[in-house]
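Reagents: none. Just compute today. Translocon-associated protein subunit beta.
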Amino acid sequence: SDDVGSTGKMHPLLVVGFLMAIVTVGHTDEEESVARLLLSKQIHNKYLVEGMDIVVKYTLYNVGDTAANSVQLVDNSFFAEGFDVISGHLKVKLDRIPPGSNASHVVVVRPKMFGYFNFTSAEVTYLPAEGATDVQVGFSSEPGEGAIIAFRDYDRKFSPHVLDWAAFAVMTLPSLGIPFLLWYYSKSKYEAILSGKKERTKDKDM
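Predicted 3D structure written out:
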């Protein structure tokens, strides 16, 4: 009878293990049904130049199974003393991003100074599911350190130098123009003499 009784009872360790399995499975299902946002930050300029526009693109990807709600994107790396915001916003709010979709935002900034600048990550916060209260926080990729070139150096290397060529033309005009005028004067004088000789020859023949 003791054997039958012991067989009919579930061991406490097995009960705990079974409950843990249920909790684990439930937690896994809950994790799979939430939103997960990935954020990328890209600099779209080949050259970064003082006083010239820099295009920054942010892209949010929802790789989760539900919509992300109350999404907020913030980039605090472009401080007001060093950059002017030409278009777009460095703080953006989105109501929701559906699962399997993405959203992008473009900001144009203009550096006020030259030198090395560390392009750090942007931050995104969101609610991972309907009715969720725990705010999720994520960070973008970091473009890293980049050199902002002084405008005078960029202009010296890449500008068409129209004024320089105009000044060069003015300076070289006398050295080219004076010989041309002398040649033209000599040519005209020679043609006049030759024409006079031909007319005198015709008069003699007559």
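The radius of gyration is 40 Å.
Action item: order primers for follow-up constructs.
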